[in-house]
Specification:
four-stranded antiparallel β-sheet; 8 strands; disordered N terminus
Length: 131
């Protein structure tokens, strides 16, 4: 009887201290923030890397625009992408500006600025590796 009681106490202690609730994101996860700004007056199709590491598309976007995601389980070779291009019927005016930024955590990882073409189309591509 004493042996059974001792084993039950041991089992209780083992279960109590080995199981813990962990709702926090993985220590490897990072917040990624995308920003688009500028003087562009048209509408854009935007492609960005979502929280699963897969490209996500949003359309009919006007400036300014931003998106914040938490990338789960990234590796050093995970590509972080931000692409913005004029919609077919959404061109702006000539010589307008689109600026894109990618932040990983609070660090600005990459930025780029483009001017629209003479007929008001914009095309911005930014790629960086998660590091």
């Amino acid at each position: 009887m004493n042996k059974i009681l001792r084993n039950l106490v041991f089992l209780f202690i083992f279960i109590t201290f080995s199981c813990s609730k962990d709702d926090s994101p993985s220590s490897n996860s990072k917040v990624i923030k995308y920003e688009l700004s500028g003087t562009y007056s048209g509408t854009l199709i935007v492609v960005y890397t979502n929280s699963d590491g897969v490209n996500q598309i949003e359309d009919n976007i006007s400036l300014p625009w931003s998106k914040e995601i938490t990338l789960t389980n990234p590796s050093a070779t995970t590509a972080i992408v931000l692409t913005a291009g004029s919609e077919v019927n959404g061109a702006g005016q000539a010589n307008e500006v689109v600026t894109g930024k990618i932040f990983i955590g609070s660090d600005l990882k990459k930025t780029a600025t483009v001017n629209t073409t003479s007929i008001g189309y914009a095309s911005l591509d930014i790629v960086t590796l998660y590091q």
